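Need tokens for this chain, all 255 residues.
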Amino acid sequence: MMTVSQIDAPANRVPEVTLDFWLIKLMAVTMGETAADYLAVNLGLGLTATSLLMTAVLVVVLVAQFAQRRYVPWAYWLAVVMISIVGTLVTDNLVDNFGVPLTVTTAVFTLALAATFLAWYRAEGTLSIHEVTTIRREAYYWLAILFTFALGTAAGDLMAERFGLGYLATGILFGMIILSLAAGYYLMGLDAVLGFWLAYIFTRPLGASFGDLLSQPPEYGGLGFGTIVTSAIFLAVIALIVGLMTLRAGRQATA
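Here are the structure tokens for all 255 residues:
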């Protein structure tokens, strides 16, 4: 039974970190990579038009997310998918349209993310995702998420393309980093907040690398499934998991 203080306490606006969370987050970032490529290349919209369109959609989605006063699965994960696409496009625009080297974009987004965390901590005294209960904290949260996606895209492309590791080796590399973070948390007492944000950053290049591996043609080191098929598969999995989350949340609310 809930106490009066629990009932009056503001609800967290973001989900608990569970296996479902990491699974759908990985699917979302993978789809963000392939969907951005599909819109810009396959549909022929180009990076600029695709970026403007997706940014406008992201604004609408974030308005819907900020209107919630608690965690609502469909609103939250739709925002994650859209911010994943826009984060990818931000990096792609800087590299392809403005000629900024991947080494520079990786460094710039690292500094931008660090500055966001610093401002967040100074304003709120915590970076914990278990206490995202106000609009200001949620604004810091989504800004940090945007920079993690842009940074992850830059770092993944830097390793796979600039340093020539290829998509599979890059995916394996970042997968091993995430496993080491998990081991550090469970076995060596790694700080939970630090471990979460590091893992969140590195799942972006992990997902993007495997998205490119599946979608890119064999001559570019991929398996040739294409962006349409790859995006559709991951979108279907995301929709299924979010549907299950929504049903589960409904049962818990009526219990």
